[in-house]
Design goal:
single chain; Sulfite Reductase Hemoprotein, domain 1; 5-stranded antiparallel beta sheet; Sulfite Reductase Hemoprotein, domain 2
Length: about 400
């Protein structure tokens, strides 16, 4: 496990299998955040966790606590490559298939050479799924789960390259990664880099697959299903979902979420790529009460709430590259936003846009403390705005829509 330096201390990344965190492990993470760091816990846009402010003398302690909680890799050197995204509502069968892929990745030392950014997505057509994150390899269930369509270097909203049988999925994924490493140069860390040089046809030349899927398109997903209380898709239970404020939790809140999961559900939490959290396995008669408890914790439970639709990076408090304290500015902006809109707004401390891996309608790029360039649909429409001026422009845009 790696702990990387940041402006506010060490940053520890904890990768979760399909976003799932048991209540026991959640309490261990809360203890580690208090004992080893600042107490700040972040949900990432890959449905993982980050602990901030880790002291230099606490690295070994933190790693030991994470491993004891079952949050580490199964093999040395296998931590960074466990990047397989699932729907927060993925079935047990889909999770088992993802586990096969991850086990193959960790068990093959050659694959440990993959970049920590090399990412896969495994999809079974769930209504709640992140379809906008680009992945180096994506696989989406078709024909009632008998086959998986696949594509490279993009999202599953693009045209698939072909399909493979379900029984071949784990082997196919491992072979794709091995071929990538065999063909890529030392400067080519992502599939898009390699394909830009050699082309897709050459990469696929050694693979057997079905090519008769060119007309297939993945059904749309509904991101609003991450919030509120809903009936689960596979069991006679419900789940409740809530948005963390700007992707952050404190240790006490995570402890309370673990308690709710233990007393009202199946003893687990599921983190999502929207930096939100789900509690699955709730009895129907308890779902409303659980949702009320989540709201009482300061989490947003409705897509129209301002903090459900504002994204912000670590900002100047946590990142030396940031030009502004985006977290504080995002809280100021949220207080000025109307409560009847659902459009997302992204505050980025620099041009890298680390906090949003998917397209966001409006992005505010920091140019100085408290000052932002306003971009809509990737085009600059105003420069050097204050937070108040940005809020006014957002209000006008909503009124004109």
């Amino acid at each position: 496990m790696r702990i990387v330096p940041a402006r506010d201390g060490g940053l520890a990344r904890l990768r979760l299998a399909g976003g799932v965190l048991s209540a026991h492990a959640a309490r261990a993470v809360a203890r580690a955040a208090r004992a080893c760091g600042s107490g700040v816990i972040e949900v990432t846009n890959r449905a993982n966790l980050q602990l901030r402010g880790i002291r230099d003398d606490a690295h070994a302690t933190l790693i030991g606590m994470a491993l004891d909680a079952g949050l580490g890799p199964s093999t040395a050197g296998g931590d960074d490559i466990r990047n397989v995204m699932l729907s927060p509502l993925a079935s047990d069968d889909t999770r088992a298939l993802a586990a096969q892929i991850i086990d193959a990745m960790q068990g093959d030392c050659a694959l440990h050479a993959l970049s920590p950014k090399f990412a896969l997505q495994l999809d079974a057509g769930e209504r709640l799924a992140m379809l906008d994150h680009p992945h180096d390899l994506w696989l989406s269930s078709i024909d009632g789960g008998a086959r998986f369509a696949f594509g490279f270097a993009g999202t599953m909203q693009q045209r698939p390259l072909g399909a493979i049988h379900r029984s071949d999925t784990a082997t196919f994924a491992a072979n794709v990664m091995r071929r990538f490493l065999a063909l890529a140069t030392s400067e080519e860390h992502r599939m898009r880099d390699l394909l830009a040089r050699i082309g897709t046809a050459r990469f696929l030349a050694e693979f057997d697959f079905d090519a008769d899927v060119q007309t297939w398109r993945r059904e749309p997903a509904d991101a609003s299903l991450r919030l509120g209380a809903h009936e689960g898709p596979y069991r006679a239970t419900w789940y409740a979902g809530a948005q963390t404020p700007l992707g952050r939790l404190d240790a006490n809140t995570l402890d309370t979420l673990a308690d709710i999961a233990d007393t009202h559900a199946e003893g687990r939490l599921t983190m999502t790529p929207w930096q939100s959290v789900l509690i699955p396995g709730i009895a129907a008669h308890d779902a409303h009460d659980v949702l009320q408890r989540l709201h009482a914790l300061g989490l947003a439970t409705d897509a129209r709430e301002p903090l459900a639709r504002v994204i912000a990076c670590a900002g100047s408090q946590g990142c030396a590259k940031s030009h502004a304290d985006t977290k504080a500015d995002a809280h100021r902006l949220a207080a000025l936003l109307p409560s009847h809109d659902e459009g997302q707004v992204h505050l980025s401390g620099c041009e890298r846009s680390c906090a949003a891996a998917h397209p966001v309608p409006v992005t505010l790029y920091a140019v100085a403390p408290g000052r932002y360039d306003f971009h809509r649909d990737a085009h600059a429409v105003a420069r050097n705005l204050t937070i108040e001026e940005a809020a006014e422009r957002l209000a006008r845009s909503h009124a004109d829509a």
